[in-house]
Amino acid sequence: GTGPAAEPVAGLPADFRWGVATSSYQIEGATGEDGRSPSIWDTFCRVPGAVAGGENGDTACDHYHRMPQDVELIASLGVDTYRFSLAWPRIQPGGSGKGNPRGIAFYDRLVDELLERGITPWITLYHWDLPQELEDAGGWPARDTAHRFADYAEIAHDALGDRVRHWTTLNEPWCSAVLGYDTGEHAPGRRDFGDSMRAVHHLLLGHGLAAQRLRAAGSAPEELGITLNLGTATPAGDSEADRAAARRADGMGTRLYLDPLVHGRYPQDVVEHLAERGVTLPVEDGDLETISTPLDVLGVNYYTGHVFSGTTEDGATTGEDGLPVTRVVPRGRPRTAMGWEIVPECLTELLVRLQKDYGLPTVITENGAAFDDTVAGDGAVHDADRTAYFADHIRAVAAARAAGADVRGYFAWSLMDNFEWAYGYDKRFGLVRVDYDTQRRTVKDSGLWYRDTIRLTRRAAAG
Ligand code: GBH
């Protein structure tokens, strides 16, 4: 079957923002063109074993050469907003010095193509493609990278800020810091817990410095924000150990970022946990004021929510590393092709909690799912599982609004299948299928459903 039929989603207003999202390294290709310098992902992809299948972003979706057709595709989905990221190594090769006119020209054209079709551009300044030169100088664990980021942000905003009013500084600093510098699953592939936590502070500082520059600029953004990957942390049971484990997970995944951003202080329990692990955040005078520069909107990337236990399977509360146990317990729910459990109700819970604890308007800047798509004889993709995922999560957003959360928009991840980081091209998140042999794009059933849902919901809300 083709999955659930499109119907209006009750409770989403006529001005609710509907979009699709992508990121530069995942779709652009053309990594050596028009003066772009290498990023940490170009380097990381060449490390044997780092990326499934030894794949890389050299060609990806070849979006750099197919941009006008891709904008047509976006328009055909009926969305009002397109969230994309700028490649820092195109805008400012090497991560220092002047802007690169040839790199900037690509985004100039993209913005103009979008505006001509009435689509609002929503720019993310940093979606993980750090110029390799800056990594060689120490990367995010080094304080100077925060200042380099602010300079780059100003160059980008000077070039595009006359037409682009929606700016996100960072995408998912947790991923940059933890996957990049602690677990080594992402570029640059380093493995040092202390470095990862120093990276957290410098990412947040870079965000704050960039936010100040954008606020001070002539055409200040209408909506300035940051995007975090967020979920829920539910204790497995009532025990003190389980509750402490969930609180630790929430501290390391959510409060470590949102408390300084919104309240201007790091959470005391997290600071103590880091001290137990021998780590001090490199906070200098004034940093927390900078980091807590007021935000207009919080971008939320949601994929799943977790249950935590504070004991091992054998009942021990301390692991081999001598640290308290923080163990994810499966819920036994269906999973996507990434292995992530599908728990839409946790999106409602998350949004209501964010409203209560942080009080910012939110936008879902990413939500979506990889499934093992098959292509029918006529080329169609009947991805009923993906459609159901979107339907359930969009309803979860409406439920959060009904419960008082100020959620203003929803961006599907992703416009099209793309380079899924360490998983290569095997994991497909697109509303649109990409045939990587021919670069042919085909709107999947989920994409048609999304288009119809937006149209019906807008029409119903307009009355
Ligand atoms: C996003 O990251 C990225 O912004 C985007 O570029 C990417 O393509 C997309 O998601 C899909 O991966 O194994 O159950 O503990 C998402 C990052 C998703 C981080 C879920 C942690 C926990 C899953 N994350 N996740 S689990």
Automatic annotation (TrEMBL):
The keyword Hydrolase applies. Its EC number is 3.2.1.21. The active site is at E172, E366. One of its GO terms (molecular function) is beta-glucosidase activity. Substrate binds at Q26, H127, N171, Y303, W413, E420, W421. Keywords: Carbohydrate metabolism, Cellulose degradation, Glycosidase, Hydrolase, Polysaccharide degradation. InterPro entries: GH (IPR017853), GH_1_N_CS (IPR033132), Glyco_hydro_1 (IPR001360), Glyco_hydro_1_AS (IPR018120), Glyco_hydro_1_beta-glucosidase (IPR017736). The keyword Hydrolase applies. It comes from the Bacteria. This is Beta-glucosidase. It catalyses: Hydrolysis of terminal, non-reducing beta-D-glucosyl residues with release of beta-D-glucose. One of its GO terms (cellular component) is cytosol. Belongs to the glycosyl hydrolase 1 family. It comes from Streptomyces carminius. It is an enzyme of class 3 (hydrolase). GO terms for biological process: cellulose catabolic process. Transmembrane segments: none annotated.
